[in-house]
Design a protein that fits this description.
408 residues, Carbamate kinase, 2 domains, 34% helix, binds aspartic acid
Length: 408
C-alpha cells in the first residue's frame, strides 16, 4: 500500500459538483487501501477575486493583509472537500497551513517553505483519516499567514510529499499530462508517459505551463516522483522522475516555444576587451533580464552584438541601447519583436551527436531562416520569424518522430 499526496487545482475545485467528483476519486484511492493526503487550491477565479477586492481598497497596501485575504480561498475548499468526503463515507479532516503547521519565511506573497511538521498528518493517515490541506499558504515566525506565490499549491503538494516521504505526488489538473508540444499548434502532439525533472523544467520555463516551475525544482531536489494527470479523464498521466540511466531515453521529449521575446542588435561596435560588459552591464542595472546572447567579430575589427529580452522590457532596453550606441560609437541599433524562440528538449541529446544538424536541415527544408542559435546540454533553441512558428514546430515534431510513441 502506498502513501500518496494528491493535489487538486482550482478547476477541479470549481463547483460543488466538481468537489463531490474529487471526493469520489479520493474515496476510490482510499478504498484500495492507500494512505492519501490531499492538497487543494481555491475555487478557480477565487484568488483573483480576493486579491482584486484587497487592491480595490489600497493597491499598495500591506502585503501581510493581502496574504491574510488571499489565503481564505483555500480555507473554503478544504472544508468543502472534507464535508464531501464525509458524505461518501471517508473520514477526513481539513487543515489550513498554520494548523499543520507549514512554516515559511516572512516574504509575503512569495514565501518559501522552511519546515513542515508532518506528525499530525501521519497519525491521521495511520488512523484511516484523510487529511485535506490548504495549498498555497503557510505561517511565518511572527505567526502571520503567508502565501507562496500564484500557483503555489503545486509546491505545497510536493513539499508535503517530501516531508511525508510519500511514494508519489499526483497533481490533478484539467489536462491529462505533459505533451510533446502545445496541441493547439500541433494537433498531433502526444502525451508523454514519462519525462525527467530537467526536461520538465525546460518545457515549463519555455511556456508549457502545466506546473508551477518551483514545484518541479522542489520535486527534483527531494526526488519526489511527480505525476500530472486529469481530474476529469481517467488515465496514467505523465510521470516526472529522475533520469534513469538503465532506460534508453528518447532522443527528444518535446518542443517548447516562447513568443515573449524581442531581439536587439548593436552593430559595428569597436571590438575590444570589455565591450560585452559595457553593453550588458547597463541592461542588467536597469533590471532587465537577458536570455540569448550572440556576438561575432567581422573582418573590419568591429563586432555585432545581438541579444534577446522579454517583450515587456523591449522599449526600456531600446532606450538603454540607443544611449549606449552613441557612447560606444556603434554603427547602429536594430531590433525586432516579431520573433519567437523554438526549442528542442531531450536528455537523450547528451549522448547523441547530430541532433543540431538534423534540426537545422529540417528547418532549412521548410524554408525557415534561423536568426540566432543557442544550445545547452539538453536543449537547442533557435530564434526565427514569428510567422513561421507553427510551421517550425510541426516540421520539427515530424522530423524527430514525436507523433509516434517510442518502441517499448
Ligand atoms: N489559489 C492560488 C492561485 O490561484 C494557488 C493555486 O491555485 O495554486 O494562485
Ligand atoms: Mg495551478
Amino acid at each position: 500500500m502506498a502513501l500518496i499526496v494528491q493535489k487538486y487545482g482550482g478547476t477541479s475545485m470549481g463547483s460543488v459538483e466538481r468537489i463531490e467528483h474529487v471526493a469520489r476519486k479520493v474515496a476510490s484511492w482510499h478504498g484500495q487501501g492507500h494512505q492519501v493526503v490531499v492538497v487543494v487550491s481555491a475555487m478557480s477565479g477565487e484568488t483573483d477575486r480576493l486579491l482584486k477586492l484587497a487592491k480595490s481598497i489600497d493597491p499598495r497596501g500591506s502585503q501581510r493583509e493581502f496574504d491574510q485575504i488571499a489565503a481564505t480561498g483555500e480555507q473554503v475548499t478544504i472544508g468543502l472537500l472534507a464535508l464531501a468526503l464525509g458524505k461518501v463515507g471517508v473520514s477526513a479532516r481539513s487543515y489550513t497551513g498554520w494548523q499543520v503547521p507549514i512554516r515559511t519565511d516572512g516574504s509575503h506573497m512569495k514565501a518559501r517553505i522552511q519546515e513542515i511538521d508532518a506528525e499530525r498528518l501521519r497519525s491521521d493517515c495511520e488512523a484511516g483519516i484523510v487529511p485535506v490541506v490548504a495549498g498555497f499558504q503557510g505561517i511565518c515566525d511572527d505567526n502571520s499567514v503567508t502565501t507562496l506565490g500564484r500557483g503555489g499549491s503545486d509546491t505545497t503538494g510536493v513539499a508535503l510529499a517530501a516531508a511525508l516521504k510519500a511514494d508519489e505526488c499526483q497533481i490533478y489538473t484539467d489536462v491529462d499530462g505533459v505533451y510533446t508540444t502545445d496541441p493547439r499548434v500541433e494537433p498531433k502532439a502526444r502525451r508523454l508517459d514519462h519525462i525527467t525533472f530537467e526536461e520538465m523544467l525546460e518545457l515549463a520555463s519555455l511556456g508549457s505551463k502545466v506546473l508551477q516551475i518551483r514545484s518541479v525544482e522542489f520535486a527534483g531536489k527531494y526526488k519526489v516522483p511527480l505525476r500530472v494527470l486529469s481530474t476529469f479523464v481517467d488515465g496514467p498521466g505523465t510521470l516526472i522522475t529522475l533520469e534513469d540511466n538503465k532506460m534508453e531515453e528518447p532522443l527528444i521529449s518535446g518542443i517548447a516555444f516562447n513568443r515573449d521575446e524581442a531581439q536587439i542588435t548593436m552593430s559595428g561596435v569597436p571590438d575590444r576587451p570589455g565591450i560585452a560588459a559595457a553593453i550588458l552591464g547597463p541592461v542588467g542595472e536597469a533590471n532587465i533580464e537577458v536570455d540569448m546572447i550572440v556576438q561575432n567579430v567581422g573582418g573590419d575589427g568591429a563586432t555585432d552584438f545581438t541579444f534577446t529580452v522579454h517583450r515587456n522590457d523591449y522599449e526600456r532596453t531600446l532606450e538603454v541601447m540607443s544611449r549606449l550606441g552613441a557612447e560606444l560609437g556603434a554603427k547602429g541599433v536594430a531590433s525586432a519583436t516579431d520573433i519567437v524562440k523554438v526549442s528542442l528538449v531531450g536528455v537523450g541529446m547528451r549522448s547523441h551527436a547530430g541532433i543540431a544538424s538534423k534540426m537545422f536541415k529540417a528547418l532549412a527544408a521548410a524554408g525557415i531562416n534561423i536568426r540566432m542559435i543557442s544550445t545547452s546540454e539538453i536543449k537547442i533553441s533557435v530564434v526565427i520569424e514569428e510567422m513561421y512558428l507553427e510551421l517550425a514546430v510541426r516540421t520539427l515534431h515530424k522530423a524527430f518522430g514525436l507523433e509516434t510513441a517510442p518502441a517499448a
